[in-house]
Amino acid sequence: MIPRWERGRTLVIVAPTGGGKSSLARQEALAVAEAGGVVAVISHEMSKEETLRALACTRAEVNNRKLQHDRATDAERGELLRAVHRLEQSGLFIADSGISTVAEMAAEVRKLKAKRGGVDLVIVDYLQLVKNLGRVGPRTEEVDAISQGLKAQ
Q1: C-alpha span between 124 and 84 (Å, rounded)
Q2: Helix or strand or coil: residue 139?
Q3: pLDDT of 143 higher than 60
Q4: Among candidates 64, 138, 129, which has minimal Cα distance to 100?
Q5: Which of 4, 25, 32, 67 has its CA 20 to 30 A from that of 121?
Q6: What is the three-class DSSP state of 37?
């Protein structure tokens, strides 16, 4: 069981490749944004456009691979367009994929807080691709330092 998100709490979701971590994060981002919350999604795996497409596919319940291979039906494309419109109207912010350090992520979140009056949820997809500009050591220690830096925000 995965606990619900709580303000000020940092959760790191760990699972094998293909274990649904990104899918879970997208579902939670959509739930919070559609409930009126402000959500920052920072993906180190996908571009802003790919992240938006994945979120729209999740919301519209359309298989992303069908869209990638141009096999979506007209009805599915219509659902995707409606999903994109809802996402654009929601409190969802998708960061550009060039953000790679804790300091850059913190700056983006601060800008979003100033613009929207607060941020309810920050999702960092693929923590291991975040660069740690501090001390170098075993990767587990670096990931811990990155997690602590994010939590301090």
Answers
A1: 21
A2: helix
A3: yes
A4: 129
A5: 67
A6: coil
